[in-house]
Write a structure and sequence with these properties.
Layout (H helix, E strand, L loop, with lengths): L14 H20 L3 H6 L15 H13 L8 H8 L19 H15 L4 H28 L9 H53 L18 H14 L16
Length: 263
């Protein structure tokens, strides 16, 4: 005998149970519409873990590699003649060139110019000599500016076309003047400090020489400046000692007034 079809479940007769069942069915329907693949994603196996990507290179390293790559495309001079011409580009007016003397200038006149500054400032050590040469070279370039200005005006009568070049010469003139004054101030400060130290040491040497001469016994050796660490010659110290005695005879009097008996 055929079995009867299974009867559908009878709905609950309790109104509260019916409201709860409808609420659950509506919530499930909204969830299925929002994420239709949620059942599939639950059954899919989780992907295998992948190794982390390597850290990128530091920015400084990337910049260095970029600079090296760009240097391969440089358009600078590569041959020796080209490098020589490039190094002499600043000789157009010579105010920023490494060498102070231009090919069109007289080297002997330049040497006389340098010697005049050496005779004037009489450097006593390598530092002072370097500053004197810097002052002389700067002055040599400064003296060139009036000649350059005169050469600009000679072929072209209209000064309006020369304004950019004259402005450039004015900038170089101001820069060289400041450089000249700075080197001169440094030289004067260094020489003043050296002379002050020399005067103090010479006074000490002359004072020691005077005291030694008045206490020296015939059997004692002669006084030598080098024995006391002085670099002055003995003749120089003797002249300064006589000068000190003339300037202050009471201080260097060998027989003080307190030791002279009253008449």
């Amino acid at each position: 005998m055929a079995t009867a079809a299974q009867a559908p479940p009878t709905p609950p007769t309790d109104p509260i149970q019916s409201w709860l069942a409808r609420r659950t069915a509506v919530a499930q329907l909204h969830a299925d519409q929002l994420n239709p693949n949620q059942h599939e994603t639950k059954t899919k196996p989780s992907p295998a873990p992948t190794s982390p990507a390597p850290n990128p290179k530091p920015q400084s390293l990337r910049r260095a590699e970029t600079n090296r790559a760009n240097s391969l495309h440089s358009t600078g001079p590569r041959t020796e003649p080209g490098k020589h011409r490039s190094s002499r580009n600043a000789l157009r007016h010579g105010l920023t060139a490494r060498t102070a003397v231009l090919p069109t200038e007289d080297p002997e006149a330049y040497q006389r110019h340098i010697q005049q500054f050496l005779d004037e400032y009489a450097p006593a050590n390598p530092t002072e000599t370097q500053l004197v040469h810097e002052i002389a070279n700067t002055a040599w370039r400064l003296n060139r500016i009036p000649l350059l200005e005169a050469a600009l005006f000679s072929p072209i009568p209209d000064p309006q076309t020369l304004i950019p070049q004259l402005a450039t010469l004015g900038l170089h003139s101001g820069r060289l003047s400041r450089q000249f004054q700075k080197a001169l101030d440094q030289l004067r400060d260094i020489q003043e400090q050296r002379r002050h130290l020399e005067r103090r040491q010479l006074n000490e040497a002359a004072d020691l020489f005077i005291r030694h001469q008045r206490k020296q016994l015939p059997s004692e050796p002669a006084w030598q400046p080098a024995d006391h660490g002085f670099v002055f010659s003995k003749e120089q110290i003797e002249r300064h000692a006589r000068k000190l005695i003339r300037q202050n005879p009471a201080f260097y009097d060998p027989t003080p007034r307190s030791a002279i008996p009253n008449p």
